[in-house]
Amino acid sequence: MGESIVNQLFWIWAPLSLLPDLVRIFVVLFVVLQLARLILMNLVPPAINLLCRLLKKILYLITYPVMALISTMQRSLREAGKVSIPIWVDFIEEMFALFERFFNKIIELSTKRKRNRARIKKWTFYSATALAVLLTAAILNNPNEWFSVKWKKTETWLTQVKLEKQLGFHVPGLPTSVQTNAAPPNPKEFVLSNQFKDGGNIREAPTLTARRLYTIAVGEAVHFLNEEQVDTRGLKWLKVETANGQITGWISARIVKEK
After folding, report:
1. Structural domain harbouring 203
2. pLDDT tens across 210-251, in order?
3. How many structural domains comprise the chain?
4. Do residues 130 and 193 both lie within one domain?
5. Dihedral, CA atoms, 122, 125, 128, 133, nearest 10 degrees?
């Protein structure tokens, strides 16, 4: 029953999947950031207040024995005829006082939140909206970066696994749809070129900075998935799949040749 209710929540993605990329990405990021904003505004200040009160109690527990020890040492020094106070004693006292003032200030600011609530809500709303715009532009303008790859994987999972396979909703024309990602009947096979005997890396995205997923050995064939891209350095990348079908990623066309 609980799993069925959770699956129904994925129907929210159905109308979103029909929107243009720009609108879809912005709407999702806007909603996520606004929810995160509300959670942070309602949970973070009380949590900080509680943490500072706890740290203040710990500070008192530390301060008492330390100052008692210093007082005992000072008494011994006075009995020995030394009436001057060492600099390190003043330093320790100032440090304890500084920490106490700091915790008191944080507690005061966190408890004054209601007075400035309207201004904080307005400022965080505009900030979250601006961040959604910037992230949308970053994803669309940097398709090979890790955050764009993560976004594409999330879209693919929502569309293929949740909507199409589990809920039976077909998304026509969407790039992440099952029909458009199907491999050709007889895919080409590639192996490492002769000069690359140390192996070749299959990466998560078509860029040299992407995470390495697997290293193919000399003579090991990979299946070409009929998709290629050129990165910002002008390097051509091929989307491939290992022979066992467990790993899919990108390999530089410079280090492989058709089998």
Report:
1. 183-258
2. 888 999 988 899 999 988 888 878 889 999 999 888 889 999
3. 2
4. no
5. -100
